[in-house]
Amino acid sequence: MELASALASCESMIKQGSTTFYKAFGYLPSPRREAVFVIYAFCRMIDDAVDEPERAPYPLDELERSFLELERAEGHFIWSSLRWLFATFPALGQEPFLRQMEGQRRDLRFTHYRTMEELEGYCYLVAGTVGEMLLPVLHDRPGLDVVESGIYLGKAMQIVNIVRDVGEDRDRGRRYVPLELMARHGYSEREFEAGEVNEGLRQVIRELDATAREWFRRGLRDLDTYPPASAFSVELAARFYEAILDEVEGGGYQVYTRRAHVGQLRKLKLLAKIGEKYAPRYLATP
């Protein structure tokens, strides 16, 4: 009963923290579904340790120490949940979780990005690693090509986060939009700090949009190798997230004062469209 309660607590975290991911991955069969919830919950704790340390149950260093001594870790539902996760999916290793912590730790010392290369490295650490975590759960035999696709999908979602949260991040003293990209489109640091929405900013966002969509394309190229339920959930999550880019454009690229989100009607339409696509595969699965 203790494990059941711990897993339920992880589900509660994703339900409260991300309706997009909860909706998309809630269609998975057990135990894949519970495993995704555990991974989300722990990544949420890592993120909160940096962004909201006053509310986080552990500072990042303590979180990492307990993770490295997982068999002895107590005092929070996440530890028994993680022990269950690694026992249930033995192909999953600790390395992507440690790289995720490295990426979040970078936020404490590296807050203004200069190049797309720097930004892509960051996107890998904080989001591409999530793809590496999820693949042993969602895919039965992920080869190198599938792993690369999973990493691209995570990085694409992080670019969407960056586009959506430009204003929030600026208010926290962070600029993920690379300086070289701003310079290429004639958008200055002064304009960024002032929150000016002009053609320069629109061109910056459009280039980030194009990058994200290309990474989504690469991220979804191997879906036919997944079990049908996993492929459905992965594509649904990706399309929900990609739709945020449409909302940014539809909102006139006002990324400083408006946080773009996808409404329920749009999500229902995407659900129906993707559900229709996967229905024959479900019916063909014994």
UniProtKB/TrEMBL annotation:
Keywords: Carotenoid biosynthesis, Transferase. One of its GO terms (molecular function) is geranylgeranyl diphosphate synthase activity. Pathway: Carotenoid biosynthesis. It comes from the Bacteria. Transmembrane segments: none annotated. InterPro entries: Isoprenoid_synthase_dom_sf (IPR008949), Squ/phyt_synthse (IPR002060), Squalene/phytoene_synthase_CS (IPR019845), Trans_IPPS_bact-type (IPR044843), Trans_IPPS_HH (IPR033904). Gene3D superfamilies: Farnesyl Diphosphate Synthase. The keyword tRNA-binding does not apply. One of its GO terms (biological process) is carotenoid biosynthetic process. This is Phytoene/squalene synthase family protein. It comes from Paenibacillus sabuli. The lineage of its organism: Bacteria, Bacillati, Bacillota, Bacilli, Bacillales.
